[in-house]
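Hi everyone,

Forwarding the result from last night's run.
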Amino acid sequence: LRLLEAQLQDQRREHEEEVETLKNQVEAMKEEMEKQQQAFLQTLQLSPEAQVEFGLQQEITRLTNENLDLKELLEKLEKNEKKLKKQLKIYMKKVQDFEASQVTVQTERRRHELNRQVAVQRKEKDFQGMLEYYKEDEPLLVRNLIT
């Protein structure tokens, strides 16, 4: 029950905040509309040439604001592009490193397989008599004899 009451209070608070935000937006729109009405009434009182000039000034102002907004958007997109290019370089480097490590692993496997093949080939030969070996190879020879 307390949980439900708490949830209801949270919802009520959120609703009140939303209503307050909407009221502020309505007020701002009313003020903007009043300004536009006053400008329109002033325009009607002007001569036709002055009305044209006023209209042109309004359009220039609107286009300037739109242009500034577009420049801001362009800057954001350029920053995002730079960030994505940096990430791409990092990922390309990681891919190259990974591919290089794969080549190294494959090379090591080939060497190991070749060594195995060489070892197999040596085991198939028949040797008779005494063999010469280095002292450091003795543990390897003993191990191979045992296996």
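The chain has a mean pLDDT of 86.

Cheers,
N.
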